[in-house]
Amino acid sequence: MTDYNQFSHVLNVFHGRHLPEDGALLAGYAALMEAYDLKVPLPELLAAISKKHKKYQQNGWMMFTPRHAPHDSLYGHLTFALKYEGVNLAILKALFDTVDAKEIANIVKMEPTGSYSRRIWFLYEWLQGVQLELPEAAKGNLVDALDSKLQYPGPARLSKRHRVKNNLPGVPAFCPTIRRTAKLDQFIEMNLNEKARAALSAVHPDVLMRAAAFMLLKDSKASFAIEGETPPQTRAERWGQAIGQAGTNTLSHDELLRLQQIIISDFRFTHLGYRNEGGFIGEHERTTGRPIPDHISSRWQDLLTLMDGLIETNELLKESDMNAVLASAIIAFGFVFIHPYEDGNGRIHRYLIHHVLAEKKFTPTNIVFPVSAVILNRIIDYRKTLESYSRPRLQFVKWRATEKGNVEVLNDTINLYRYFDATRQAEFLYECIEETIKITLPEEVDYLKKYDEMKIFVKNYIDMPDRLTDLLIRFMNHENGILSNRAKRKEFSALKEDEIKTLERKYAEIFSTR
């Protein structure tokens, strides 16, 4: 049996994170991590017992009063964690890999009808893929595996054996979770998708169709630009067409491969399909060529397990009532953290945002929100969002440099990629979608209306072919409503000065509210 004294830890600093006060006792997941020396990334929030008789939150710590102190045992701290911190699958998996299965069985035998003992029992068997030598639960009210007051649940599936409703938002092979936050609750209550539909219903179908085509191309170009690429127009258009089909094809290994083939037209120097070696994002030392990783991809040996899990989780969430943006964050960011391909991961990651939103009917039919364009404008925040996952995990990956300047992962890292907290990613994605719906989408529609108005004026004022009219307006756009001296000398040398002034005045009148 466990020596329960091992849980009594008073620390001032825990894994580099300072506690808000001296003499505080670790509780819940922090106590379990310390007691069992669990090598896992720190949660966003940890818990400790304060000497003060008030609850407060500071510097990544949730401080609880002495009356909240758990029984100083494995069961006590597990119960505290589930009650106040939620389900942290990464920590639970590391813990269950460490403790003797008999200790979990004894918890259930001690309280066979207890709600927390049955949740622990269910989580153990779900994560470990084994059954303890225990009979099925015969009594006890049904209890949720995940507390919806603390985290956003997936669809409920009954586990009769434990009398537990499995509402985890994934499957054992891939199950990120998202903490319930005031920010995300506010976003969900906004019903942004309904606002977008209402706004678009007032737009003339012709204008809406042109806006949709423009936004597809804009999103495609922005997605390439995020990767530092400026593709030929035909390549950008081809990827834009693929984005426009998001949500129509079922997500599968073959579908993901098809997307990679669209992105990368020449595979002479890029491996087609899932990686058969390591992968990382970062730089190389100039002299030695040694990798300097900012992110290390999952081991290639784990890719089929992880991708099977991601695809299965997408199917699970697709038919559920889980919020579309939260589901999108789980699938899209989970994909890019796994980084299954040698190239094309970033663009497919952003495609998956569209795919899940379309699949769950969040986006209006035939409309793609140009989320990538907003991400491009917020590229620093985007990188910070990615790094908030990647950087804390680098210390848990043992690797060596290969002769090709790549990395070879030497330890078991699969749990880093299938069990993580996607709260920051969900909040960032919701921010981008809000900006897309409230600002970018109305601006695109408004611009097209004004563009049409200006085009009609030009056509009525001067007998000019459509090609030159479009070119004239584009030139004026680039110069904030002024026709440049170069354009006056070349393409529009036939225009008189008074005609140019009239055109510039009209442009200013029409576009003054842009």
Please sum up the structure shown:
With 514 residues, the protein is α+β, with helices and mostly antiparallel strands. It has helices at residues 29-36, 74-84, 89-98, 101-110, 115-128, 182-190, 192-201, 205-226, 233-244, 253-263, 303-318, 324-338, 345-359, 371-377, 379-394, 414-418, 423-461, 466-478, 485-489, 497-511; strands at residues 13-14, 17-18, 25-27, 46-49, 56-58, 61-64, 143-144, 157-159, 164-166, 280-284, 291-296, 399-401, 407-409.
CATH superfamily placement of the largest domain: Fido-like domain
- The average pLDDT score comes to 93
Helix fraction, binned, reads: 40-55%
How far apart the termini lie comes to 71 Å
**Topology-level CATH name of the largest domain:** Fic-like fold
Report Rg: 28 Å
What's the helix count? 20
Largest sheet: 4 strands, mixed
Number of strands: 13
Strand content: 5-15%
Characterize the overall form.
Answer: elongated
Task: List the domain count as a whole number.
Answer: 3
Strand order of the biggest β-sheet: 3-4-6-5
* Uncertain stretches: none
Structural class: alpha+beta
Tell me about this structure.
By secondary structure, this protein is an alpha+beta fold. It folds into 3 domains: about 5-165, no CATH class; about 180-265 and about 275-440, Fic-like fold (Orthogonal Bundle); about 460-510. It has helices spanning about 30-35, 75-85, 90-100, 100-110, 115-130, 180-190, 190-200, 205-225, 235-245, 255-265, 305-320, 325-340, 345-360, 370-375, 380-395, 415-420, 425-460, 465-480, 485-490, 495-510, and strands at about 15, 15-20, 25, 45-50, 55-60, 60-65, 145, 155-160, 165, 280-285, 290-295, 400, 405-410. A 4-stranded mixed beta sheet has the order 3-4-6-5. A 3-stranded mixed beta sheet has the order 7-9-8, covered by helices on one side. Strands 1-2 form a two-stranded antiparallel sheet. A hairpin with a 5-residue loop joins strand 12 and strand 13 (about 405-410). Helix 17 crosses helix 18 (about 465-480). The longest helix has about 40 residues, at about 425-460. It is elongated, with a radius of gyration of 28 Å. The relative contact order is 0.09.
